[in-house]
Amino acid sequence: MSNAPTLAGPARRVRPGTTALVALAVLLLALPALVTVPYFLHLTILALIWMIIAQGQNLIQGYTGYVSIAAGGFMGVGAYCVALLSVKLGWSPWVCLAVAPLLTAALALVVGYPSLRVKGHYFAIVTLAYNMVIFIVLMNFTSLTGGEAGIARIPRPPALQTPWGAIDFDTRTGYYYLVLGMTALATLAAVLLVRSRVGQAMTAIRQNETLAEAVGISAWRYKLFSFVASAGFAGLGGALYASYMKFINPAPFSVESSMNAVLAVILGGSGTLAGPVIGAVAVIFLPEYLRIADTYRLIAYGLVLVLATIFMPRGVVELAQRLRRRPKQEEKLHGRHQEN
Questions:
Q1: Backbone dihedral region of 270: left (phi > 0), alpha (psi from -120 to 50 degrees) or beta?
Q2: SS3 12
Q3: CB of 73 within 8 A of CB of 135?
């Protein structure tokens, strides 16, 4: 038999990750047709919004190694930007969705410049204070924000004409596809950022900030960049939330929301790109499934989080990777024993 190479060439193996990604994309596109309960679609939209917020939180927490407890506050800034610009100034909802994360990032740049001179737990305390200040302003500046009464009648973006027909974002299904597209773009932006030289510098700071500075990395600049970027992601999430709910008040933007962003990164897998996706789903769906516990729901939720933190300190993604590597390691050990 001839050993000459064929014209077709060697067959390329399809990576399991690629197959899983394609399957996930198909599932997400077909999800509105598969979900028969509207409330589940509502929760899915909220989970997608939280994926954006968690991806931003992962930049500062997972890759740079600094825990920020201000995501809820920045989410509120983005939400109120959309509400005020669209309701009181009559701006286009599309323009509001584009401007809100930029204004949120600008605020983070102003407050982050002095804050990132501190390190460790002090930084977390400072960002916690920022969240509290933002919440207090939203609650008490009633002439602008409406206080607890909030702002109603926030418009959604108008219908978008496509070759396959119009997508009406005023419907839950239409808005699902809008949020899905925004989540995909935000995740792509996070992937490109993490794999760039900026992402490598952020990872170096997380691993050893002193050594990173010794080799010429301006640590505080990259920390400021990751803080501003995470705020921009949170602002986009807040903008989409306000437009979806059509009504906002300060309640969803308290410190509790910031802690949920931190927990989403921890549960899913800190410093991984898939972790915030899994963590966001857990943060939204887990409390709902625990409603069967009624009075003990919050206790059960807290117990699950504590156990997950103890037994999965690196999150679900790291646990899955370890389980996937275990058969290969056992095969290698078995092969060595046979050789001996």
A1: beta
A2: coil
A3: yes
